[in-house]
Write a structure and sequence with these properties.
By secondary structure, the protein is α+β, with helices and mostly antiparallel strands. It is built from eleven helices and four strands; from the N terminus they run ααααααααβαβαβαβ. Strands 1-4-2-3 form a four-stranded mixed sheet. The radius of gyration is 21 Å and the shape is elongated.
Amino acid sequence: MYNEAVASSSLQQRIELLRRSCEQCPDVSAFMELGKAYQENNRLADAERAFNEACDLPRATAEAKSKALVALGSLFERKKDLTAAITSYRQALSLHDYPKVRERILILEDEKSKTVVSSTEITRSLTSSHRGNFAVKPTINLPVQFAYDTAELNQQGIEQAKQLGQALSSKECAGKHVELLGHTDLRGADAYNLQLSTARAEAVKVYLLQHYPLNASRISIKGMGKTQPLFLEDDERAHRVNRRVEVRLAE
């Protein structure tokens, strides 16, 4: 049935045959083809479900799951959901190395660094479940900006801190404990970067406590300096992405 489906020139027939093939004999290839067919038919929610099914099949190899995650990332890009796309691509890289996907993440992270991540995106990232085979702490990197070489939030930084405050004040995040991890780019002395990243994480915490009804015990901070860069390239794009405040659920 699977071979008949992929050979079919009729999109509707292909979808129906692939759907039946997945029901009778769940297989990564069948779910992947079904997801692609749904995308071609502009049924994006159905495509997302099909790619997720491919990811979750217990018999699937790591490489097969990674391909399904790349497909999910591409789908989220089509839906203009950069945060979800980056998450899927990063999960794919945790299973199999794709240089083109790594480059795509840098492009998307750079694009995201020039915007303000919404409270809705932050909340979803901190509360969504992650598949066990490549589980990580719920986390999100925020492009919180500061005045040059200081721990003083600039206007964009304030806007981003506002969105974070709204997310942490939401009912979905009620009672959750988070860590704010400050990161710098790769330039400068280790000791100075560690001090600056700590001060910047502290500045975000102070802003949150001053403007939102949050308990200080829910928020811990740590400066990471330049010890955990997202990218090692020595160019302004990578430097811009590496400068960030990482928000993740605490233990």
